[in-house]
Structure formats: C-alpha cells, structure tokens
Amino acid sequence: MRLSGKRALLIGAATGIGRACVEDFARNGASLVIADINEAAMAEAVELARAQGVVAHGIACDVGDEASVRDAVAFAEKQLGGLDTLAFFAGLMRTGAIDTFEAATWDAIFNVNARGTFFAAKYGAAALRRAGGGSFITTSSLAGLRGAPGMTAYAAAKGAVIAFTTALAQELAPSNIRVNSVLPGWIDTPFNNPAIDHMGGARAHGEIVQRIVPLGRQGTPAEVAPMYTFLASEESRYITAKSMMVDGGMAH
Ligand SMILES: NC(=O)c1ccc[n+]([C@@H]2O[C@H](COP(=O)([O-])OP(=O)(O)OC[C@H]3O[C@@H](n4cnc5c(N)ncnc54)[C@H](O)[C@@H]3O)[C@@H](O)[C@H]2O)c1
Questions:
Q1: Which residues have a Cβ under 8 Å from the Cβ of 212 and sit 6 or more positions away?
Q2: Using a 6 Å cutoff on CB, does residue 62 contact ligand 1?
Q3: 8 A C-beta contact, residue 112 and residue 64
Q4: Consecutive H or E run containing 119
Q5: Structural domain contains residue 209
Q6: Using CA positions, which residue lies closest to atom 7 of ligand 1?
Q7: pTM of the model
Q8: CA distance 248 to 252
Q9: What CATH number has the domain bearing residue 132?
Q10: Do 71 and 59 contact (CB within 8 A), yes or no?
Q11: Of 30, 182, 206, 210, which shows the fewest CB atoms inside 10 Å?
C-alpha cells in the first residue's frame, strides 16, 4: 500500500500503460480519477480500480481541448477532496517519410502528446499546489531521445515533453511539486502498430527488438506501471526533473 491516502488523476489511462497504472495505483491504495477520450475503455478501467476496493471515478476528456482538461482536473479535485498526483499518459503515434509527411498529422501528434501535457500541467499545477505539493508525471518515450526512421514527428513531440518536464520541474520545485517523465522503450500495446507497419511488419519488428533491446523482448504495461507508482509515492520524494527509462536496457 505504497500510495495509501494518495489522490491521483490519471489522464489517458483507459488502455495500455495507463490502465496498468490504474491497477497498480489501486492495488497500492490510491483513490483515482481516470480521464480519457475512450469512454467505454475508461469505464472498464474505473471498474478494475473499484474491484481493488478503492474510490475511483471516470470523466470523459479530450486532451486537445483546454476546457476539457481544466474540467477533468476540477472534477478530480472535487471528487477526491484534493490532488496529490497527476500522471499524463495520452499519446498519439503516426509514422511516415518526411518528404510526404502532412502538416495536419504533425499537428495531431503534437496536439495530444505535447500540447495535452501542457494543459495538464497548466491546471494540474494549481491543484497540486492547493494540496501542499505533489507529483506530476509525464510520459515521453525512448523515441524522444533517439527517434527512429519514420518517427520524426512523434520523436519531436516526445522530445518536447522531456524538455517541458525538465523546465517545469524547476518552476514548480518551490511549490513542493516534483515533475518527472517516464520513458518507456518498446512496450507491447497496439499503440505501436503504425511503427511496426513502418518497419515492415511484426517479424521485422521482432528482429529489431531482439537486436536493440538487451533484454531481447518488448516490455509489458505491467512492467512499466511500477515506475509511475514509485514516482507518485513518498519513496521518490528527492527525485525531480528526471527522465526515468523503462526500456529493457535499450538506452545504454
Ligand atoms: N507502447 C509503447 O511502446 C510506448 C513506448 C513509449 C512511450 N509510450 C507512450 O505511453 C503512453 C501510453 O501508450 P500505450 O502504449 O499505453 O497506448 P494506448 O493507446 O493504450 O494509450 C493511449 C491512451 O491515450 C488515450 N488518448 C488518446 N488520445 C487522447 C485524447 N485526445 N484525449 C484523451 N485521451 C486520449 C487513449 O484513449 C488511450 O487510453 C503514450 O503517451 C505513448 O506515447 C508508449
């Protein structure tokens, strides 16, 4: 019960890595609000959390819409009686060669990954401050450090999240708010399908993963979730402005 008494808003946590965090946060005793654009999957995530015996609520939220993020933060603060942790997972990946990459696709990728993170921080910071401090956790990617062919826009957006996290950590430290980013490597969710297609399919992707990941396989969402739990817990109280890689050794 490492998060006993903690009140957390998890944005973009209906599926994948975020949903694994819902389960890990609930197992560790946090009360939760889950915000996501996918309302059906969000309702399932809420039920999973409640099955662990914790308070959990859901709210529909589009992170591309400033008012929607503002409302999700206000809802969480009201339902939970305050906010100690805000973790942002929402992401969008599209791939393509640079010569034909559409500006609209570039904008869509930045809209969810980077601009969404900004809105979460803009409203989340005040809520965490009202609670006397807390933990703000962003989700970047190994792609934000080194990228890959066909992933220029996604890599740029995730690189922006890293820079944003570092700057925000310095800005919010006087308010006792820690800000860190989790950088997953290759994690087995359908999110990566566009990248796998771009690499030539599942077999080619499998060979690449074997070659570049020292542990020789993709990770699972459940193997990433404990990093978020750690960053939300008091065990990480002296850790801020960091990029925490969960990547099977890919970056070395
Ligand atoms: N899977 C990987 O290998 C991997 C690697 C590095 C980083 N990441 C990052 O981890 C995060 C989660 O990815 P995942 O693999 O769990 O994929 P996922 O598709 O399961 O999760 C993304 C979540 O974001 C939500 N979302 C998308 N657009 C939204 C919007 N406009 N408003 C609100 N919610 C929205 C989706 O509904 C979903 O619940 C993403 O930020 C992704 O970039 C994933």
A1: 250
A2: yes
A3: yes
A4: helix 116-130
A5: no
A6: 141
A7: 0.99
A8: 10
A9: 3.40.50.720
A10: yes
A11: 210
